Amino acid sequence: MTGKIFDDERRKTKSARSLATLSPEKQAQLVLPEESFKVTKMAMSQTDEDFVMECNEGEEAEMVIDIEPMFLTKEEYFYGFTADSDPKFSIEYIESSEIEGEMDPKDHAAKRDGTATSLDREEDTTGIEIKIKFAPESAVGEFDAYLCFMFPNEKAFSKFYKITGKSTMGDATRDAAPPV
């Protein structure tokens, strides 16, 4: 068994054991900030980045949000959906990074010195991965969830994501529907 596979399995098992719950105090912090100018969007917004997931009714869609280290030292974090997020969205905790913990620091030295090889970069797992699932079941339409990635000691650097799920009628359902 290679090291990367072993580390992935250990991370999944550890996540499953933690049961992925936040304290009520941390859950209360999972709210969108006031609207401000976001350079990445070149617009006023409450979120830093927006994603769209699409599938037919009865199907599911999945995506991974990867958050790279942004500090020179380890920094505490936690994440979760806002209370008003649609329940058709879920976080796949077993396949995601820990719901709370410490983000590893940036690794500038290897990149600056040119010593990071493509193999090193491929095995670099210091970022936080959050796997999101959208399962609309038989519902058709657009649904929203808001993911908050919080740095309790560096609140200004917290990240907020809007995830829109679009569910459309599948071909079989559309063919069976009576004409209007």
Query: How many strands, what sense, and barrel or not for the largest sheet?
Result: 5 strands, mixed
| Number of separate helices | 5
CATH architectural designation: Sandwich
Work out the number of β strands. Answer: 10
CATH superfamily: Immunoglobulins
Q: Which percent band covers the strand fraction?
A: 25-35%
| Radius of gyration computed on alpha carbons | 19 Å
Distance between the termini: 58 Å
Helix content: 10-25%
CATH C-level name: Mainly Beta
> Low-confidence spans: pLDDT under 50, at least 5 residues?
117-125
Overall morphology: globular
Helix/strand structural class: alpha+beta
Please characterize this protein's 3D structure:
- With 180 residues, this protein is α+β, with helices and mostly antiparallel strands.
- The protein has one domain (3-21, 35-171): Immunoglobulin-like (Sandwich).
- The protein is 22% helix and 34% strand.
- A five-stranded mixed sheet has the order 3-10-9-5-7, with no helix packed on it. A three-stranded antiparallel sheet has the order 4-8-6, with no helix packed on it. Strands 1-2 form a two-stranded antiparallel sheet.
- A hairpin with a 4-residue loop joins strand 1 and strand 2 (43-45).
- The chain is globular.
- Mean pLDDT is 82; it is low at 117-125.
Topology, pairings included?
Elements: H1 3-18, H2 24-28, E1 36-38, E2 43-45, E3 49-56, E4 61-67, E5 75-81, E6 89-91, E7 100-103, H3 108-113, H4 118-123, E8 128-134, E9 141-150, E10 159-168, H5 171-176
